[in-house]
Design goal:
This protein is of the alpha+beta class and about 270 residues long. About 30% of the residues lie in helices and about 20% in strands. The chain has 7 helices and 11 strands. The protein has a 7-stranded mixed β-sheet with strand order 1-2-3-4-5-7-6, covered by helices on one side. The chain has a 4-stranded mixed β-sheet with strand order 9-8-10-11, sandwiched between helices. Helix 2 runs antiparallel to helix 5. The protein is globular and about 60 Å long. The N and C termini lie far apart (about 60 Å). The relative contact order is 0.12.
Length: about 270
């Protein structure tokens, strides 16, 4: 596909739907749980747009969206974090779409930005996640091919310096600890927020479904941090699964048996 056959457009209020639908696998279009995750993503996108005026770029083939790159400024570090780059359909792979999207972003981020006091950001930073489809080029390899460097102190991070000689050193992350609440005892509490990825809500819902299968009739409370910020603040963490006032550390995706064992152990504790 020659470059002139597709175009790159910044996301605005008018094409938020195109951005979000690119995240939806065809088999999930009629899945109400997944589509709820899409609605939460729309909320997140609108918020980022309102705050920063930019959130993503979409590649179009004619009028059809075929890929996107999504990002958010991190003002205290003076960087731009790339949250995702994605070209979902196999027929569009290895056509230069991802390269064009990233190149477009790099060119724009070399210009002064109000977010950073009228200066360009120091770097683009990303945390590529595994999970590519068969025959799909891994995101990590793609970013490295495009000149991204390994962050020495954190092997999961890559960065592209926009200032000559700049080396990205991530700030130390303070671990947030769950603050047990009396009203969380004897029940499941799901803490969540609108997210840049609809799979976040989808996997939370799947986790709850597994818990309900193992413990029929268990009470479940969902707390949306944007709607109930005081409840999130009380608990000291912004997202997670809490069972009987204990934070669950394992993940369903990493292993169903391990996840359910931790859940059941938490419920058995007095």
């Amino acid at each position: 596909m020659p470059p002139e056959e597709f175009r790159v457009v910044e996301v605005s209020e008018e094409n938020i739907g195109d951005l979000c639908l690119l995240c939806v696998p065809p088999e999930r279009l009629d899945d109400p749980v997944f589509m709820m995750g899409v609605e939460l993503k729309k909320t997140w996108v609108k918020d980022v747009l309102n705050r920063w005026g930019a959130v993503a770029r979409i590649a179009y083939l004619g009028e059809t969206p075929v890929g996107f790159i999504q990002y958010v400024p991190v003002t205290d570090e003076k960087i731009v974090h790339i949250t995702c780059i994605f070209v979902p359909r196999k027929e569009h792979w290895r056509k230069g779409i991802g390269r064009r999207l990233l190149t477009s972003l790099v060119e724009d981020m070399r210009r002064p930005k109000e977010w950073f006091g009228g200066e360009p950001p120091l770097a683009l930073v990303t945390k590529p996640f595994p999970g590519e489809k068969p025959e799909q080029y891994p995101a990590r390899n793609f970013f490295k091919d495009m000149g991204f460097k390994q962050v020495e102190s954190n092997p999961s991070l890559l960065y592209f310096p926009l200032k000559h000689g700049f080396t990205y050193i991530p700030p130390e992350q303070r671990e947030s600890n769950y603050i047990p609440q009396e009203d969380d005892k004897g029940k499941v509490v799901i803490l969540y927020n609108p997210s840049f990825c609809p799979f976040s809500y989808f996997f939370l819902k799947k986790s709850v479904q597994e818990i309900e299968k193992a413990m029929p009739g268990i009470s479940v409370r969902w707390i949306n941090g944007w709607e109930e910020p005081v409840e999130i603040e009380r608990r000291g963490i912004s997202d997670g699964i809490v069972v009987n006032a204990k934070l669950i550390r394992s993940f369903l995706l990493a292993g169903r048996e391990v996840f359910l064992k931790e859940v059941l152990d938490a419920l058995r504790e007095a």
